[in-house]
Queue: 2 jobs
Job 1
Amino acid sequence: MLDQNPPAQLPANPNVAIVGSTGAVGVELLNTLAARGFPLANLKLLASARSAGKEVSFNGGTLIVEELSENSFDDVHVAFFSAGATLSRKFAPIAVAAGALVVDNSSAFRMDPDVPLVVPEANAAAMSGHAGVVANPNCVAAIATVALAPLHKAFNIQRLNLATYQAASGAGAAAMEELRQGTQAYLNGDDFQPEVLPHPYAFNFFSHNADIEDNGYNGEENKVIAEVRRIMERPALPIGVTCIRVPILRAHGMAISIEFDQPVSPEQARALLQDAPGVKLVDDREANYFPMPVDASGQEDVLVGRIREDLGDPSGRSLSIFVVGDQLLKGAALNAVQIAEQFLPA
Amino acid sequence: MLDQNPPAQLPANPNVAIVGSTGAVGVELLNTLAARGFPLANLKLLASARSAGKEVSFNGGTLIVEELSENSFDDVHVAFFSAGATLSRKFAPIAVAAGALVVDNSSAFRMDPDVPLVVPEANAAAMSGHAGVVANPNCVAAIATVALAPLHKAFNIQRLNLATYQAASGAGAAAMEELRQGTQAYLNGDDFQPEVLPHPYAFNFFSHNADIEDNGYNGEENKVIAEVRRIMERPALPIGVTCIRVPILRAHGMAISIEFDQPVSPEQARALLQDAPGVKLVDDREANYFPMPVDASGQEDVLVGRIREDLGDPSGRSLSIFVVGDQLLKGAALNAVQIAEQFLPA
């Protein structure tokens, strides 16, 4: 499918396109490009006919959303796709054929062996084998691997167990608004019928609503397993995971137990994480201060704390950590922009 | 300390006292005694001088809170203590000396070898050794062991890992109100300074605020470890646990991974839990319907679902489950009343 070899490097000032710029992730793509000073020459916003003509603010100016078509990518150097797997499957090959590098935020290509699945802090080297498309991982996989990669590189990870605390933003801007509105209705004592998510969200949590698959895990959990394995280059790593949506707006948390192939002390892990890219250590036992959504939201760094022995493993080879990251940033938009940045001239 | 041997059985219509009847658990003790038709002859509400004189509704009538004193228990057959460990340490021995059975909801006696720590569904037999006081467990330990006991009795549990999703009610009625008020302030865009809990609670979660102890676990987590071991009569069971407060009003959730000493299938576990006392199976993969606080709140049963192989353990000896229970009921008041019911004549 992706048989054309696009340039290994972007020009110093590339033309950028965003497919799906009005969703929760699209808005953060614009914010992140602006905040990081991505050296774009021109920015084109693309969407279905329904959204074409919408005005979007960017860097103090206003851009008009154009209708996505087969000719949209003719002058584009890098295209960010954030409009669902169906659209990515159709238009990513068209963009690549036109010479663009595609950074795809959907699940369309994440398990395609020809498409690197990349968290730059964890496996930037995997990008060298790309054939035009680089896939941006599931939000839980991206946030988890920022914290896990430095540990895995120093001490081989043998087994993982994750329980997640996932925010509304993973289901899009409409779910965030439903959480706000449903909560206000609850506080007012009013009835409220959820429409975006299948369960009441006000002061409630629920098992992630992705369909349950044959192994008893839901689609989100199976993505986490498959993608963490791929990013960490451990195709058979045993991973157990429970994905729960909690009433939080935009930061995901996860309690992770990690078994290594050798004893690792909390101090060794803390020293590695202290210097790890993309990680901010928030691990103040004295002050009882650890990673929280209020601190992670709007932050590029993934917060890591509660680093301690996993007392469920008497061998001394296991640690437990608690990780919180902004779902829209490191879980989506920021990671996508960081991927594109790897292709800019040094 | 507890050297007097109180009657092994209560009279058919015992006189009941509640120490601490105006807190979140106290209110649910009253509700639970009424809802279950506990055959009390007389009900006495006891509190510090500060709360004495308050009026409390019970079963359509009104009771006046009396000031707790050394003479409060002279005619009492069973006393529920729910006013903190300090008060329990002082007054439980006085109540026992006066001939009362004490059911203590504080942490004062939970690890005292002379005091049974009881979840009736799990270890009712342990009560036979009591010397006047029976301890009511920590809420997480109580809810978890309702689900774990039937599995443990059939297939020996070798290792546990829990990640909790804990409600405001665990920190009392004031924390529940702070969650409501803080959330309303957030939605209004107003500043809000938390006073009961150390962190913002609106659309936020945080590591349980009990002090971190020498092993890197907080006091809540160490209670869960010690109490689950005691209730399951496995004093050295390896247990890893992460306790997180989520913005929920009154139901605790927990993702639990369980390693057995032999392979156990999800079907075997489901069959056992289907018939287990105090458990309601909520495990509909087709409808993607699993335990949630909105369903568990106000319910006596502990909801159990997401029963599946723990893919983090390639041996096939591990299962993962998701459990939600009402923190004020099975996590506190209901379990206390159930303990007292065991002493009523058949």
Job 2
Amino acid sequence: MELWYTQPQTDNIRFSIKVKEELFSGKSPYQQINIFDSDEMGRFLIIDGIVMLTSKDEFIYHDMIVHVPMATNPDVKKVLVIGGGDGGTVRELTRYAGIEKIDMVEIDRMVVEACQKYLPLTASKLNDKRVQLHFENGMEFVRRSKEKYDLIIVDSTDPIGPGEGLFTMEFYKCCFNLLSEDGILVNQCESPFYEKNAKEMRKAVKKIKSLFPISKVYQYNMPTYPSGHWLFGFASKKYDPIKDFKPEKWEALGLETKYYNTDVHIGSFMLPTYVRKMVENPE
Amino acid sequence: MELWYTQPQTDNIRFSIKVKEELFSGKSPYQQINIFDSDEMGRFLIIDGIVMLTSKDEFIYHDMIVHVPMATNPDVKKVLVIGGGDGGTVRELTRYAGIEKIDMVEIDRMVVEACQKYLPLTASKLNDKRVQLHFENGMEFVRRSKEKYDLIIVDSTDPIGPGEGLFTMEFYKCCFNLLSEDGILVNQCESPFYEKNAKEMRKAVKKIKSLFPISKVYQYNMPTYPSGHWLFGFASKKYDPIKDFKPEKWEALGLETKYYNTDVHIGSFMLPTYVRKMVENPE
């Protein structure tokens, strides 16, 4: 017997991974969660039918969501992570000795528990002393919180289902208010290639640009996401990720990374012309 | 009825495009050629079951295979293209008024004729006055030729079937000998991500590095190729694609491009750490 997981990346494009076995299947109050094992991609997490991460390429996503803002401002002390239930973002953050506190707000406890059991590769640092887990709606958390953060990372699903609120103007406004005077916001920002993803990307960019003095988009290659060309938004009150970037400061930390390096940092902001145009005119 | 084209990108990964209709199917002495039409990717060319190009993303491949070397040395006058039967590489080359002669060597006349009929988007410039088509084996052409070229572009299929000879030491040596003193070689160089592609990439890089004083690899995002993370090799006798790059010289030409720009040029050489390591130690 052959078992294949298939994701319709658009109505007309399908991506499939041959499965060795299903390790977990659960329906939480929020979403359908599956974890499979495979020869090609190792263990992988599916939420509502969509690839969230695979063991083989998650290093790319987590390197880029964490090290780009942290290398822009290595003095970050307090971090808020919205989403990121698999723990990969927190894992990379905990490598910085200078970070004192990480609040992680994940709506779905089942995601975290399933990943702790079946994806220890990403979830193993969720018990770091500096990490506080909050199982609640990210929108409600940022509306209520009175903390100040140096960095907010929105490690969300697509803007469908529980992730939808994390793409709204109100959410970005609350993030702005929770950020310190030199705070940075990084958000999962979809892709420029397929129309459906590009539309969501443009909507998010338009909102964030209207709020932050510095708003950019950076790219990376994510093999298991539709088209493989994926983006993060970088918004900031003070630091420009290129002009204020001091590669030697990050390199002095001695962190080993498989995807990120200080050249990739710079190159990731060098967008193809068609993407640059979308970001400049996101209407 | 639904018709889907499916490519096994590895033994365990499949990529599928929903097909509107088949426009062409032919078996040449060298390979099986199919052209389909689709809603998502427009018309697309399949050779021996593998995506060669789709109308939606071919601009990325052709921008990067042509404009990176041409922007490194905008004074190129004589070009040799090996492969590239779809005509996209020649199309981009013909936009440079300074190019005086383009020899294109394609083993398979049926590919060219099918593309001229069904893919005029890429094949329309093959009748440019400066272009001379040679329907023969690329290996034999470079072994025999006594010309000198400023640029050789190896726009080949994977190193299986008729493309195999274009990944050999003898082929690269012949290319070296055909290049002028400031000549540049660009070659389709597979991908770092899936093991099978990465192995071929390392083998090609190792051979080319042993011959050329300057040998680099640059990357681009190609949604319909396995993993979407694809590479070209850049080898040269004189010009470094970064140190000798004069963006303003290329910009003065006023060419409009959808993917390439002078920032992307620089960023494309900024490789992720794991790719950099493969290129530095291709054993």
